[in-house]
Design goal:
The protein is an all-alpha fold. It contains four helices and no strands.
Length: 74
């Protein structure tokens, strides 16, 4: 009897939603947090405060809040 990881038991269509996470799973590394798969948009993904074209969040509090909210909306 072989045991499979949780990632291996996921249906393939769910992996297509987050390609960076899927690539990390395929590579056998830890999954990439959802927030890292977000493209920079010029504003904070949590509070919409204007930012440069590189950053995704204005600070750690917004980043942590986004992670917490994402965990509850899975």
């Amino acid at each position: 009897m072989t045991l499979e990881t949780i990632q291996e038991s996921l249906p393939e269509k769910s992996l297509a939603v987050e390609p960076l996470v899927a690539a990390a799973i395929d590579a056998g590394t830890r999954p990439v947090p959802t927030r890292l798969s977000l493209p920079p948009k010029g504003a904070c993904w949590y509070c919409d405060k204007p930012l440069d074209s590189v950053r995704r969040f204005c600070g750690k509090s917004c980043s942590d809040a986004f992670d917490e909210e994402a965990e509850f909306t899975r």
